[in-house]
Amino acid sequence: MKGRWVRAVFVTLVFTFMGVMLNGLPGSAEEGEVVTVQGVVLIFDDEVVLQTTDGEYLVEGINLIHHAGKTVKVTGTLEEEEGDRIIKATRFERVP
User: Fold this and answer.
1) 34, 55, 77, 82: which one has the fewest Cβ atoms less than 10 Å from its Cβ?
2) Which residues contact 83 (CB under 8 A, 6 or more apart)?
3) Would strands 84-94 and 71-81 be described as parallel, antiparallel, or unpaired?
4) What is 31-96's CATH number?
5) How far apart are CA 9 and CA 79, in angstroms?
């Protein structure tokens, strides 16, 4: 009996975690909203990507190529195109 209860709780937690990872946390920023996100700058082909704890953002508007591998805070407007989250950056700062 106890094993079933533990298993049920575990399965519930796993599905809750998966839902958060796929959909973001409740109250996450909406498209068109100005936000500041922090993450590591990655370069894929010619695209600059900010890897954050809640996923990846394509970065447009500011050239962060020279900051690859560094942690930065980026402020800008959120957009979504073809399933990609894009931040139209207006400013950034390096995080020590």
Assistant:
1) 82
2) none
3) antiparallel
4) 2.40.50.200
5) 36
Q: pLDDT digits over 24-63, tens only?
A: 443 456 778 899 999 999 999 889 999 999 999 999 999 9
Using the predicted structure, report yes or no on whether residue 21 has a pLDDT greater than 50: no
Is the torsion defined by CA of 13, 18, 23, 28 positive or negative? positive
Residues listed for the chain? 96
Residue 64 CA neighbour count, 13 Å, CB half: 34
In the predicted model, what is the mean pLDDT of residues 78-87?
A: 92
**Locate tokens 């190529």: which residue?**
65
Site of tokens 């409740």: 26
pTM above 0.85, yes or no: no
Q: What secondary structure does DSSP assign to 7-54, as a single string?
A: HHHHHHHHHHHHHHHHH-STTPPPTT-EEEEEEEEEEETTEEEEEETT
**Domain extents for the chain?**
1-28, 31-96
